């Protein structure tokens, strides 16, 4: 674990460590339904574009670009409920949204995986593409404050951990391990919020 020694740090390591810190903070803020999750996430996103480029995880690098757009999108949606300027409530996924997600993930994985495998020097092209597809779906759902986004994050974070260990991105592997706990906490907290909303409507 040489990355723990400051003498072994370089610009790439500093970018990864700061990306880890801001990444943890943005997920904690998201679990708290705090709007500051979005600007914090943008800092992490821009740093991880560099980190994943260096690691030849090009799908993950592209994912960070998409995350930037989705964070601006989520920032707006969380502040607006429909045409009203009111905070968006937590809600559940619809059957149609599940259908689109289950269609999008395999199609995106196969398409991007084949492209990266045959046209680039990408490492773990199909695994990288699969985790990217699931992460895009989860981020889109979080932007729309869908409760199930946290369960999807738990699944994909569990896959990310061994991938980043294999790529020797140890701070990032630790980050995604901690994401597992934060995602579960986020799910429990958002579920309580949803129950409170339902109780208020029924009351």
Automatic annotation (TrEMBL):
The keyword Cell membrane applies. Keywords: Cell membrane, Membrane, Transmembrane, Transmembrane helix, Transport. InterPro entries: NMN_transpt_PnuC. It comes from the Bacteria. Its main location: membrane. GO terms for cellular component: plasma membrane. The chain crosses the membrane at residues 13-31, 38-55, 61-79, 100-118, 173-190. It is found in: Cell membrane. GO terms for molecular function: nicotinamide riboside transmembrane transporter activity. It is a multi-pass membrane protein. Required for nicotinamide riboside transport across the inner membrane. Belongs to the nicotinamide ribonucleoside (NR) uptake permease (TC 4.B.1) family. This is Nicotinamide riboside transporter PnuC.
